[in-house]
Specification:
InterPro entries: HAD-like_sf, HAD-SF_hydro_IIA, HAD-SF_hydro_IIA_hyp3, HAD_sf. Helix content is about 30%, strand content about 20%.
């Protein structure tokens, strides 16, 4: 590929596509408001026989994600199912009954523990760490956790990252996520287990849900991912063997401002391996 152009409409890309795996934050909403044209595009794809699985690094169960989507005005008819990194993290907790957890994250993520045998304790008593985010992502960065992580490293604690994102949009600002803390711990020499994009388990779960909805498996050549992050969405899709439509309005928006076409050098610099196409914002 010598150039990579922007396309205007999803309809031009979904011929031969049966399943869309769409990111949520940055594609469907920005944390404060939904994007009506994106919701309409996914709904229209479904009306024409396609299946839409929302695939998100939200550190909460799928039903909590659904409640947030409803509050932001995203109708249930926009998608068939949701799979979240929070769901996969909950499976880890369920598979380690009786172990004690030191939790790093804001109170709004407390639903990740709902209904589980999860005993939350101070760091000194913990068997492992779960990180769903920063305690105060409005003011903190990963560096604020360095001393805590060094103490965890001394105890050789595993950190389970329930959201591999480094940053995410909140309105017109970027805020730090659990991935920033997890990457610092890994740099310090700590053991980290990541759940969510770009790691394979979340894609496997998404395809299992698509099979349930469609009643039969779907070949990966007939699957299209949609996302706005090179690190999670593009890397995850390529690693799983599916094409990606890259939405530029998200966390990389400044890098694409004023660009109509990318040459080979720019593609390599921005993406490494290019996505299937670019779209400023998702539209049918």
């Amino acid at each position: 590929m010598t150039s990579l152009r922007f396309v205007e409409q999803l309809r031009d890309l979904v011929g031969g596509v049966d399943v869309v795996l769409s990111d949520i934050w940055g594609v469907v909403h920005n944390g404060l408001e939904s994007f009506p044209e994106a919701c309409e595009a996914l709904h229209t794809f479904r009306q024409q026989g396609g299946t839409v699985i929302l695939i998100t690094n939200a550190p909460r169960p799928a039903d909590s994600v659904q409640r947030q989507l409803r509050k932001l005005g995203v109708a249930d008819e926009t998608y068939d199912a949701i799979v979240s990194s929070g769901d996969l993290t909950r499976h880890f907790v369920a598979d380690h009954p009786g172990q004690k957890i030191f939790w790093i994250g804001p109170e709004r993520d407390s639903s990740i523990h709902r209904g589980l045998d999860a005993t939350l304790v101070p760091l000194e008593q913990a068997d492992y760490i779960i990180c769903t985010g920063l305690f105060d992502d409005e003011t903190e960065s990963a560096e604020d956790y360095r001393d805590t992580l060094l103490k965890a490293l001394e105890r050789k604690l595993t950190l389970v990252c329930a959201n591999p994102d480094i940053v995410v949009e909140r309105g017109d600002r970027l805020i730090y996520c659990a991935g920033a803390v997890a990457e610092l711990y890994r740099e310090l020499g700590g053991e980290v287990i990541f759940y969510g994009k770009p790691h394979r388990p979340i894609y496997e779960r998404a395809m299992a849900l698509a099979t349930e909805r469609r009643g039969r498996p779907t070949e990966l050549s007939r699957v299209l991912a949609i996302g706005d992050s090179v690190r999670t969405d593009l890397t995850g899709a390529l690693g799983f063997g599916i094409d990606l439509l890259f939405v530029t309005r998200g966390i990389h928006s400044e890098q694409f401002e004023g660009i109509e076409q990318l040459d080979a050098a720019s593609i390599k610099e921005l993406f490494g391996h290019p996505p299937r196409a670019l779209m400023r914002e998702l539209k049918w």
